[in-house]
Amino acid sequence: MKRAFAVLIFSICLLSYAIVSTGCGSTKTQRVLYETTDSLGRAADTATDKFNDWMVTRARAELGTSATADSVLAWMTSNKAWKDVMEKRSAYLLAFNAWCSANAIAASGTNVVSAVQTSGFRDAAIRAASDLTMMIASYVPSVQIIK
Amino acid sequence: MANETPVPLPLPMWAVLFQAALPLSVDLFTSLMELFRQDSAGTPPTPDAWNELAVEWASVSNEQKAREAIARSGLK
C-alpha cells in the first residue's frame, strides 16, 4: 500500500514537471514569454541549419567522393567562415539563455526582475540574433535576417 | 493578468543550460555540477564562471549542429 502511494506521488510529481516544463498550465504571461523566446530560438536555429547545410555542400564538393562524415566535420570546423559564424552563434546563445533565465525568474514571481531589465535581455538576444543571421545571410542570401 | 497566480518556475542559468545542452559531455557536466555545488554551499560562482561554462557549452553545441547537418546530408 505504501509502495503504491509512493508510486502515485512520484507519478504526480513527474506529470507536474512535464506540464510545467512544456509550458502547459502556466499563466498567460508565461505563455507569451515562451512563445516569444521560442519564435526567436526557432528562427536562429533555422538560419544556423541552413548555413551548416550550405557548408556541408561546399565541403562535399571540395572533398569529392572521398568525403566522410569525419572529413567533412574537420573541413567545416577548420573553415574561417564556419568559425566566424559560430562565434556569432555563441554570443547569441549566451544572450538568448540569459533572456530565457530572466523571463523564467520574472514569471516565477519568486524574484523581482523589472520589465526594463527583462526587456534589456530581450534586446540583447534580438541584437545578437540579428548579428548572427546578418552574417549567415552574407553567405546564404535566402536566410531571413532577424530584426 | 494581475489576478493570475504565477506557477513557480525557477530556472537559473545552470538549469537553462542543462535543459538545452543535453546530452552534455562528461567534462561539461562535471563543470556544471561543480558550479552548482558551489552555489549550494553558499558561495555562488561569479558571473564569469557561468559565462565561461556557457561559452564552452556553446562550442559543443556548434559542433553538434555541424554533425546534424552532416547527418542530414546522408554521410556516415
Structure write-up:
The complex is a heterodimer of chains A (147) and B (76). Helices cover 82% and strands 0% of the residues of chain A. Chain A has 147 residues and is an all-alpha fold. In chain A, helix 2 (28-63) packs antiparallel against helix 4. Mean pLDDT of chain A is 77; it is low at 7-26. Chain B is mainly α and 76 residues long. In chain B, helix 1 (13-21) packs parallel to helix 3. Chain B is elongated. The chains are: A mainly alpha (147), B mainly alpha (76). The A-B interface holds A 20-21, 25-30, 48-49, 52-53, 55-57, 60, 67-69, 72-73, 76-77, 82, 86, 89-90, 93-94, 97-98, 100-101, 104-105, 107-110 and B 1, 4-13, 16-17, 19-20, 51, 54-55, 57-59, 61-63, 65-73, 75-76.
What gyration radius of chain B follows from the Cα positions, in whole Å? 17 Å
Number of strands of chain B: 0
Total strands of chain A: the figure is 0
- Which structural class best describes the helix and strand composition of chain A? mainly alpha
* Form type of chain A: elongated
The total of helices of chain B stands at 3
Q: Given the structure, what is the number of helices of chain A?
A: 5
Give the chain pair forming the largest contact, with residue counts. Answer: A-B, 39 and 35 residues
Outline of chain B, from the CA principal axes? elongated
> How is the biggest beta sheet of chain A arranged?
none
Structural class label of chain B: mainly alpha
Average of pLDDT of chain B:
71
User: What's the assembly state of these chains?
Assistant: heterodimer
Unreliably modeled segments of chain B: 1-11
What does the main sheet of chain B amount to? none
Beta-strand percent range of chain B = under 5%
